[in-house]
Amino acid sequence: MRDTEGLDIYLQLAAQDRDHDRDGQLLARLSQLAREMEPNSESDQFGSIDIDNCLHAIAQSPLLFPTALARWLTTDSDVRLGKALLHHANITHLDQHFPQPYDLTRVLEDEAITTARRACALAAAPSVSLGWTLSMARDFPGSDEVRNCTTELLDYHVEQLLVSTVELLGSPDSSFLELDVSTETLRKAREVQQVLDELPRLRELEMTADMRLLYSSLKRSEHREIHRRAEESSAFRGLLHEVRLKYTSRPVIEVPHDSGTEEMTLAMSSHELAIEPPLSELTDPVLGLMRRNQLWRSTSS
């Protein structure tokens, strides 16, 4: 769905020569437009292409994103818009191996604190939540309230996202390598990781070779069944020509032409993305949910 108001806001947000003094007006217009739209009953997302484009433009802007996220996540009527913006940031930085730095000098201290807590409560990408927390410590060095909040949230990252925290803080690309609170947290996280690595492992809880083979076979069968059902229900089944790939060490596709069929080898490259969920999601989901709810309800006061 396209609307004139949303398109106009997007064009101004994405303009190269945008007047930064009018950023506040544009964000206010966008939030007002979002309040007037009914959310999708299944995904709680906006059914507007232009709002989605606006959020994407904001997520890519170093100046707009901190201001917009802090404003919307701390305002009850705009929380849904703030969650949608955070979702865009998560997608952008999901595979990032260093904390994303943010300029919080245009953000109020209490809004920065509340946003940091709520980003953790929403299980934001570790590079986003950790980057916001460290940026807050860097931009508000003299605040006891920020110092207490930073300590609490960094401990939360060590406790819930240990592997990601060690990787992000230890990255040579991190802009927080000289920040004392970052180096101290990295030292603490590595100590915790070393203690966990030295714990005895029970062989009884590990899969045998036969169990691993059986598990792989079950996963392959599951994937085939998923693809089969997807193909049966696809609207493109009767419109597009289906091509089967033959796999040896490299995939091969058969290309028919006038003189017969020729096999063409395709160059392939592997890609994987590892995502670490909060530890409590695996060990105690109820306690983890309570902890995140507590972070959400907490404010700078």
Outline the secondary-structure elements:
Blueprint: H1 4-13, H2 23-35, H3 49-59, H4 64-73, H5 79-93, H6 109-121, H7 126-139, H8 144-160, H9 162-169, H10 180-197, H11 209-233, E1 245-247, E2 251-257, E3 260-265, H12 279-283, H13 285-297
Antiparallel strand pairs: 1-2, 2-3
What would you say about this model in short?
The chain has helices spanning 4-13, 23-35, 49-59, 64-73, 79-93, 109-121, 126-139, 144-160, 162-169, 180-197, 209-233, 279-283, 285-297, and strands spanning 245-247, 251-257, 260-265. It is mainly α.
Low-confidence stretches: none
Q: Please indicate the percent range of residues in DSSP E strands (runs of 2 or more).
A: 5-15%
The structure class reads mainly alpha
Helical amount among residues, as a percent range? 55-70%
| Overall morphology | globular
Q: What's the SSE pattern?
A: HHHHHHHHHHHEEEHH
Total helical elements: 13
Strand order of the largest sheet: 1-2-3
How many domains, as an integer? 2
Main β sheet profile: 3 strands, antiparallel
What is the average of the pLDDT values?
A: 87
Q: Give the beta-strand count.
A: 3
- Rg result: 24 Å
- Distance between the terminal alpha carbons, to the nearest Å? 41 Å
